[in-house]
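tokens incoming
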């Protein structure tokens, strides 16, 4: 009598070469179950000394306090800091939380540019955005982006001049 795989007898086949195949099978049918085990939970976690901060640290309103360790190198400040504080009033599952944080990042870039100018440093935006590497390694992408940016700026200038001409 010919031996056949139980999965084949049950009408299932075991495809070879498909990464992750079988992860949703019952434990008795999973090929790696004897070797699998979840990482063991730590029975004893030593109490970490609470970190003290001299700057405002924002944290989720879903959490009662701060985590034991957190970063304080860039505290929230200016308009972007106010936007971040507003974002953390909302739950992390609320889209407003994330959209406000994204907008705050963009505002923070503008604040950084203004701070550079205020200190007499003219930023080299071309180099800081990695344009030299883009030109060297992705010339077609660079040209495409430059054409699109030029078209958008040209359209904006045209519309502003046209609007100014209609008013005058």
């Amino acid at each position: 009598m010919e031996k056949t795989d139980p999965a084949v007898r049950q009408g299932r086949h075991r495809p070879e070469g498909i990464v992750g195949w079988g992860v949703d099978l019952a434990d008795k049918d999973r090929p790696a179950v004897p070797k699998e085990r979840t990482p063991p939970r730590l029975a004893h976690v030593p109490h970490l000394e609470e970190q003290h901060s001299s700057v405002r640290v924002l944290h989720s309103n879903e959490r009662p306090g701060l985590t034991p360790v957190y970063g304080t190198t860039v505290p929230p400040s200016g308009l972007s800091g106010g936007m971040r504080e507003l974002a953390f009033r909302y739950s992390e599952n609320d889209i407003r939380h994330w959209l406000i944080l994204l907008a705050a990042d963009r505002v923070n870039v503008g604040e950084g540019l203004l701070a550079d100018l205020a200190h007499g440093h003219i930023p080299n935006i071309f180099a800081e955005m990695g344009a030299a590497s883009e030109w060297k390694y992705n010339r077609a992408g660079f040209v495409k982006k430059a054409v699109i940016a030029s078209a958008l700026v040209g359209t904006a200038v045209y519309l502003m001049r046209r609007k100014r001409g209609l008013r005058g």
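note: DSSP finds six helices and no strands in the chain.
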